[in-house]
Amino acid sequence: MNGAQDLGGMMGFGSVVPEPQEPVFHAEWEKRALALTLAAGACRAWNIDMSRHARESLHPAFYLSKSYYEIWIAGLEKLLTSSGLVSQGELGGAPLGPAKTVPILHAADVAQVLARGAPSDRSAAEPPSFAVGERVRTKVMNPPTHTRLPRYARGKIATVEAVRGCFVFPDVNAQGRGEAPHWCYSIRFSARELWGAEADPAVSVNIEAWEPYLESGA
Amino acid sequence: MRAADHHDHDHDHSELSDMELRVRALETVLTAKGYVDPAALDTIVDTYETKIGPRNGARVVARACGDPAFKARLLAEATAAIAELGYGGRGGEHMVVVENTPGHHNMVVCTLCSCYPWPVLGLPPVWYKSAPYRSRAVIDPRGVLKDFGVGLAEATEIHVWDSTSETRYLVLPMRPVGTAGWSEEQLAALVTRDSMIGTGLPLSPAQVRS
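The joint structure predicted for all components is written out below.
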């Protein structure tokens, strides 16, 4: 969706301000926000693409004015209520209703679960349609649902630089309609293709694009 | 998103305590309903505060500097090569390493969210997740590098990697001059987090001495 999360190429946010000797967390609640997000994710009531969509569908004014962990907490509350794990009333302090039966992440399993991760490569039913070195054009598309094709990279010519493999397709997975794996490519744009004739000729940008985002650029 | 929320903390107590209360309430509900184990939360926090961070990535880079066969494996099959040092898993399931050379500089961003190679760099800094970085990295990478005090020759190609899939990138910075014969441990001390994102360069031997 064309939400506030799709920031590439926007202007007016000012300089990047690195913080010297930045701590891992800036407040105690940030620690809990991270840990709650990871632990609640282990209940398997949603997937990573649903959680990204929960954050990006927050109101743009909210998204752009809050810190990242505030966005995570707002996204988590949304996922908890939409999945039925927690009701809006319970979040507001009402007496707790019955809990759903879900898998729980126990302390003893944390190290193993983090070390295992959640690989998203899948076996492919068909060979990839595009080859390294091939010219492709990204589609012009504006789905109201989740997509990983940024606005700045739509309708542009690129070169396939690598075939990454066959991966879970976020656009479908975020809607809870299954993993629908597709081939994913690393494709390279010149800055001039993306931003116009005035752009720096020595700059290029790669994105990773699933096959449904692409058509032949020949 | 606020560019640097840490700057607000001194004069933003009310909002902070609101968040503190809100997150505490959420934890209470999730614990009471049996969805989260509070001890697991402590373990997760401890993991990212003390075990997983950019020193992991620095060890990978230092190994690549001193071991050409490892470097070749790292550039060909990064996930497997990084696993040789014991790093991998969540947020780094599908790693790609991109190498800086005298004429070619790599820089990593996630314009759509905050994708970042956790097993080798830990949790991302605030600026990496901020609107200024995410908006400008793809349209004005040279300007962003100036914000970090990095000036590259105009002829140096800049290659930006927008992390739009589950692939996670680690930049392999150039080996600093004057480090011939250095041990992996000494080299790792020169490898900064930002040099592995591409918004910085490794320290020089003189910078470490000072």
